[in-house]
Amino acid sequence: MARLRIIHTSDLHNRLEREGAEALAFLRETTGALLLDSGDAVGAGNIWVRRAEPILELMNLAGYHAMAVGNREFYFRKRGLLHKTAAAKFAVLSANLRAREGDLGHIRPWTVLEAGGLRVGVFGLTREMIAPGCWLGCFSDVRFVPWREAVTEAIEALRERVDLLVALSHLGTRCERALAAEFAGVDLILGGHAHDDLEERAASGTVISHPGHHGTRAVLLEIERAPGGGLSVNRRVASVR
């Protein structure tokens, strides 16, 4: 397997500055990496909408390839949900979030990206914001499916089509550890929500990585398939301030 490079951020909370966006763009261009974010990039509250999300223009400048829908990007009405990420010129992903009628417009469950001659399947996972039986569900025109069901669907749709399968997750560390333990078909979990800085390898061989938060730094992952079939991952931190 050829070497794949991924730059990963999460939980920016509208803290990315132009200098940081330019640093990410430079790192992406010089390494040929995919640039991915695990959600909570915007500054809005969990379930309210504001007029503009300036960080998305900075993420466009940086050249992001995809981001997951985090709880900050979520809104219980489809129109507001789409408004929050409308300025993104990159893939916005959530495999466990669905419209009650029709589709979710520019929000897709997954995408397939190419880097270094490899096909990389990337699917998004969003932290559940409307629990079953919650009163807010009565007014919502979007719904959540169980994340395990969404992961199963993503593996069935993507595993045979790609060289590497990546979960771009905003579930939080506890759920991501469960995902790694239960789904050997996922090679890499790029996590968020918990504001952790960690790298772990599950018994299944799945690697979990969290990059920290608030736009202070990014993680650069260099990934190769080891002779035994597992992943060899070299992880280093890059400052973006």
Structure description:
- With 241 residues, the protein is α/β, with parallel strands linked by helices.
- The chain has one domain: Purple Acid Phosphatase, chain A, domain 2.
- It has helices at 18-31, 55-62, 78-84, 147-158, 173-182, and strands at residues 4-9, 34-37, 66-68, 91-93, 97-99, 107-108, 110-115, 118-126, 142-144, 164-170, 188-190, 197-201, 207-211, 217-225, 231-239.
- α2 (55-62) links the parallel β2 and β3.
- The protein is globular.
- The model has no long low-confidence stretch (mean pLDDT 92).
- Give the SSE string: EHEHEHEEEEEEHEHEEEEE
Quantity of strands, as a count: 15
Overall average residue pLDDT: 92
Radius of gyration: 17 Å
Measured by DSSP, the beta-strand proportion falls in 25-35%
Oligomeric state = single chain
**Main CATH class:** Alpha Beta
How many separate domains make up the residues?
1
Report the CATH architecture: 4-Layer Sandwich
Helix-strand blueprint:
Layout: E1 4-9, H1 18-31, E2 34-37, H2 55-62, E3 66-68, H3 78-84, E4 91-93, E5 97-99, E6 107-108, E7 110-115, E8 118-126, E9 142-144, H4 147-158, E10 164-170, H5 173-182, E11 188-190, E12 197-201, E13 207-211, E14 217-225, E15 231-239
Parallel strand pairs: 1-2, 2-3, 3-4, 4-6, 8-10, 10-11, 11-13
Antiparallel strand pairs: 1-14, 5-9, 7-8, 12-13, 14-15
Helix pairs in contact: 1-2
Keywords:
241 residues; alpha/beta; Purple Acid Phosphatase, chain A, domain 2; 7-stranded mixed beta sheet; 6-stranded mixed beta sheet; 15 strands
Quick rundown:
The chain is an alpha/beta fold. It is built from 5 helices and 15 strands. It has a single domain, classed as Metallo-dependent phosphatases (Purple Acid Phosphatase, chain A, domain 2, 4-Layer Sandwich), CATH 3.60.21.
